[in-house]
């Protein structure tokens, strides 16, 4: 029986969605285990191009059961909008192929409002939040002050619980931020409107997963963002408010007993980072602009230009270790085609000394990249499907990364389309 997690090794946007879409063929169940609609997985396949925010990337495969686990931030409104958009592009989404955990906590409209209010209060010290309400949501979840999806089935008890929470939340909204109070009616209207649409998908997914396990099914755990955005192991406070690392997958999926046998870490052939925070290998000016354009590096959710840089071997090795990656999918190698030389961030310089170790978060601002260059290749590699057919310089580049991060690179992606990849056996 296979239990595999696909995770990001760096700052997110590594191309996880594309890899999950490809690999779902080998799995029966795909589970999103953390995060909310604050990131976007881009998938290109026979149905078209999609930016998935909350839906698992397995929804395009017939026969695959997709699950939103208890660890996700369940925004009913955004999820419903996403379901409708995906359906409009010809993809079938029914309780046969999508289920939502009754233990998932609800991201409520006031979480989004509070996210915006807090970022505004922080002004130039803002965290660069996508303002989807993720941080206020997870804070409330850990305070046990939000609703569970399963509560939608008992309207009377739901109203009583919603009234309690509204009274408490208004103290913060009006008292701390001077914002308008919310009424219980408003909250109940929202819950009823989207709850009725989504109730058919909500069930005890842990029971369902246990059943699937008994049937010998294969499970794929899908993460959002990457190791460096992990709340415990990332670049705090510029992280997300949940745990994208593979070790959290069993807990957030509804299979807390599960042992994961394979962790595929997705690494981009260069670095990108959205939002604020230290980004040691960042490039600026024309060189950066060229890379950004070549890789179409604009946020899937926000459209914000991503910060770019060469591959960062220090951060990548750290990410691989934190994830316990057993294999790597290296994406977007094609984007580097045409460069005379490819810069690589090999080490960091911290307070006058070079280091291979990823530093404590508060020291990152003082780090400088130690760069070297590798010879580039001039040919278009996007049509290549075998390792041997890649230019020698491209193979050397991949092998250099593999050696530096201490993990085999098993897939090399050379384009966004489903079949644009090379598998290394
Ligand atoms: P995710 O959140 O990790 O799934 O990553 P994003 O979807 O934010 O970013 C990855 C982007 O790169 C998407 O637009 C993909 O279609 C695209 N992409 C993925 N793999 C490749 C590749 O190998 N080459 C090229 N050119 N684009 C790719």
SSE map:
Blueprint (H helix, E strand, L loop, with lengths): L2 E6 L7 H8 L5 E4 L8 E5 L2 E5 L12 E4 L4 E2 L1 H13 L9 E4 L3 E2 L2 H14 L11 H9 L12 H22 L7 H15 L3 E2 L1 H10 L4 E8 L22 H5 L8 E7 L2 E3 L11 H10 L12 E3 L1 E2 H11 L3 E5 L9 E10 L2 E3 L11 E9 L16 H14 L3 E5 L7 E3 L2
Parallel strand pairs: 1-10, 1-11, 2-5, 2-10, 5-7, 6-8, 7-9, 11-15, 14-16, 15-19
Antiparallel strand pairs: 3-4, 12-13, 16-17, 16-18, 19-20
Helix pairs in contact: 3-4
Bound molecules: guanosine-5'-diphosphate.
The site of guanosine-5'-diphosphate has 22 residues, from helix 1 and strand 3.
Whole-number mean pLDDT:
94
Count of structural domains: 3
Residues in helix, %: 25-40%
Q: What's the CATH class of the largest domain, please?
A: Alpha Beta
Bin the strand percentage. Answer: 15-25%
In the predicted model, the low-confidence regions spanning at least 5 consecutive residues are none
Kindly provide the radius of gyration, computed on alpha-carbon positions and rounded to a whole number of angstroms: 22 Å
What is the CATH H-level superfamily of the largest domain? Adenylosuccinate Synthetase, subunit A, domain 1
Give the termini separation.
Answer: 21 Å
CATH topology of the largest domain: Adenylosuccinate Synthetase, Chain A, domain 1
Total DSSP helices: 11
Strand order in space, largest sheet: 9-7-5-2-10-1-11-15-19-20
């Amino acid at each position: 029986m296979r239990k595999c997690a696909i995770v990001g090794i760096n700052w997110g946007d590594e191309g996880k969605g594309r890899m999950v879409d490809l690999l779902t063929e080998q799995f029966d169940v795909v589970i999103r285990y953390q995060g909310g609609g604050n990131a976007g997985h881009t998938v290109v396949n026979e149905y078209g191009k999609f930016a998935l925010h909350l839906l698992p990337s397995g929804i395009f495969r017939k026969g695959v059961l997709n699950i939103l686990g208890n660890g996700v931030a369940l925004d009913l409104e955004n999820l419903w909008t996403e379901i409708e958009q995906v359906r409009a592009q010809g993809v079938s989404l029914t309780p046969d192929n999508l289920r939502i955990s009754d233990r998932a906590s609800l991201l409520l409209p006031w979480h989004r409002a509070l996210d915006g209010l807090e970022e505004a209060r922080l002004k130039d010290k803002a965290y660069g939040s996508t303002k989807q309400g993720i941080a206020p949501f997870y804070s409330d979840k850990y305070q046990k002050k939000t609703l569970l999806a399963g509560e939608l089935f008992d309207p009377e008890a739901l109203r009583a619980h919603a009234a309690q929470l509204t009274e408490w939340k208004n103290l913060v909204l009006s008292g701390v931020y001077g914002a308008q109070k919310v009424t219980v009616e408003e909250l109940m209207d929202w819950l009823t409107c989207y709850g009725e649409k989504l109730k058919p998908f909500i069930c005890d997914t842990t029971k369902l997963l246990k059943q699937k396990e008994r049937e010998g099914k294969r499970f794929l755990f899908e993460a959002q963002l990457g190791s460096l955005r992990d709340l415990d192991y990332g670049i705090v406070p510029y992280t997300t408010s949940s745990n994208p690392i593979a070790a959290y997958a069993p807990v957030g999926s509804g299979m807390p007993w599960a042992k994961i046998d394979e962790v595929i870490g997705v690494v981009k052939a260069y670095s990108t980072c959205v939002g604020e925070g230290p980004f040691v290998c960042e490039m600026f000016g024309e060189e950066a602009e060229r890379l950004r354009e070549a890789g179409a590096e604009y946020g899937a959710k926000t459209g914000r230009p991503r910060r770019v840089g060469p591959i960062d071997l220090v951060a990548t090795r750290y990410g691989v270790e934190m994830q316990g990656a057993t294999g790597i999918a290296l994406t977007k190698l094609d984007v580097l085609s045409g460069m005379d030389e490819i810069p690589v961030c090999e080490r960091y310089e911290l307070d006058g000394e070079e280091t291979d170790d990823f530093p404590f978060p508060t020291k990152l601002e003082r780090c400088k990249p130690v760069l070297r260059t590798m010879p580039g290749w001039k040919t278009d590699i996007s049509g290549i499907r075998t390792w041997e057919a890649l230019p020698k310089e491209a193979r050397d580049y991949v092998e250099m990364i593999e050696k530096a991060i201490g993990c085999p690179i098993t897939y090399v992606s050379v384009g966004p389309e489903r079949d644009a990849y090379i598998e290394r056996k």
